[in-house]
Each structure stands twice: as structure tokens, then as C-alpha cells.
Protein: CoA transferase
Amino acid sequence: MPDGEPDFTRAAILSRAQAVAADFTAHTGIRIDVPLELSGRAALSGATRRGRVSVGGASRLLATRDGWCALTLSRPADLEAVPALLETAAPPEEPWDAVTRWAARHPATTVTERARLLDIPAAILGEAHAAPPRVRPLGPRGRPRPMAGCLVADLTSMWAGPLCGRLLAAAGATVVKVEHPRRPDGPRAGSPAFFDWMNAGKLSYAADFDAAALRELLTAADVVLEGSRPAALTRRGLGPDRIASRPGRVWLRVTAHGADAANAHRPGFGDDAAVAGGLVGGSGTEPVFCADALADPLTGLEAARMVAESMARGGGELIELSLAAVAATYAATPPGPADARHAAVPPTPPPGPRPRASTLGADASAVHAILAARRALGD
Structure:
């Protein structure tokens, strides 16, 4: 809890994350400060643990009639949907108080199923299972390549995908961050320090997702990072099976709960996805949130490692990771020795000063020049 003793029951996840980072380093030569990546956002904002309230404040662990679940009310539409969730005519004066009381009267399945009908991110504690990333052939393999010199189209937002893109940029790739001109990445409107940390060093390109220019970028890209719900690109003819094949291309898809038919449309964020995976703290009967949206940075690290490994074996693959499955995999990590779990962990300092990320669409001419050069080379 916020005022209780520190909880080290999940300390072993750091060792697993460091092993993933070491694999990335072996392929790219780029070292990763894992504690910083996992807790840097909280350090930037000065936020600390808050028990059953997420570090960022948008998610809550709720006691239901038969267990625990998590809900996230981070978007205006989520708050607007609360009256429908509670089946009340008017918005409650204190939304979270009303939601907490309502959840306590219903089974967890009722709470989460009703939330999902309203597109509110929700998850039952421990509902997801540990699973490795899904990898399937996408096109012809190419020659094994390092990340340096690759062209990466980064269509992701928030944290997991952008972290992957930043690590690939650090490894020498040219990363183009694509945002819709009227619906930019949410963190642009939040903490500038966090957005810069995730996106400095990328080229900024504003494109309507129905535009031919975006199709050209995806066709030319060696790596595509996708973080939207799969149907969002597919219905625009821009999914991995709808873009002209390119030897060695790696297409990474990050979802909240998986790309299968049952979960492809489910919304989710790092905190509620971590709960789905059972990645919570607390050694008693009541769970608490474990770190800050932990499923996000863990998935970003896993994604960067997977892309680098795929390129090293010639690519030609679609890689699918879900936040919830990654969280469940880390939740299943056996605890380390007791002395290591209870060792003093120094506070993580915030990331040092970063260059500013480009303003939205500022690098369009540079992106067009890259595409023109690839056309001229027949690449």
C-alpha cells in the first residue's frame, strides 16, 4: 500500500528484463538501462506507488463479488461511458466512488464484460496466460541484416511501441513516427519530457491513414511497428497482408490482449493489461499495482529484442505480442533468492535531458526524400 513497507515479491522480473536487454545488446551493441526503462516515466513525474490506484491515476483495482478486476478511465470517452456502465441516467458526482460500489455488487465477469461492451479497458485479475510472441512467415526472407541503415515505420503510440522504436533508432535505424494529423499520439498533450524521451531521434510524419503516401512508406519500410487494433489498418487495406511484399520485412504488431478474434477489438493499457497477466504486487489477500503501467515497458523491451533477432535471421516475419501475455510471462517468473528480493533498491533518477522530439509532421520533406531515394534505387 502507499504508506506500507516496500513490496519486493516481483523483484525477479528485473533479472528477466535484463536478460532480454542483454540479447538486444548482443545483436545491436546498444546497452539498455533496464531499471530506468521500467520506472523512468514515474521518475519524470515524481509519482510513487498508490496501492490499488495506478501510479498514473487512471486505473483502479476493484473488488468484485467474486474476485478482483481492473478498469481504466483514461480517455474522455471512458468517463462519458460511466453512466451507461452503471445504468444511471446522470453522471455520478464521483465516478470512481460510484464504479467501486457498483463493482462490489457484481461478479468480475459481469463488470468486465459490460465495460468491454462500452469500449472501456477492463481485465479480470490473472485472466491472461503466459505465452511467447507469435511469429509467422509474412513474405520472403532477405539477407541477415543489422538494424543500422534499416527504415522503420513506427505507427505505434503511448509507450510499448514507441519504446521499441526508440531502441531501434539507437541501434542505427531510421525511424519514422507516423501520426494522424488530427489524432496525434496522446502523450503529445501530456508530459513533454516523457514524449521527448520516447520519440526524440525519430522523424515525424503526419499522414491520414487512408493516404497513398502512407502506403508508400509501409511498402518501402524494412520494419513496420503497429500498435492499433488490427482491424484499424486492415479495413484501410494497410495490414501486413495488404502491403506489397518486401524481402526480409519484419512487421511487429503490439496489441493489448492478442490479435485473435476474441480479443482483437479489446482496448487496454499498461496497467489493466498487467492485471490481466496477474502481474500485481501484494503478499496478502488484496492485490496492488506493480510499478507504473509495467506491461508497457516490458513489452517494448521484448519487441525490440524480437525485431533485432528477426532481422538477424533474414526477417520476412510477422511478430505479434500482447501486453497481457507479456505481463503473464513475467508474472510466472520464479522469485529470486530472499536476500536479493529484499535488497535495498535505490530510487531511479529520471532520464537525463533529451533532445526535443520533432513537432508533428515537421520531417515530411526528409521522409519524402528517403522514399524518393528508395524509388530511384528500385529498393
In short: The longest strand covers residues 174-179. The CA atoms of residues 255 and 322 lie 5 Å apart.
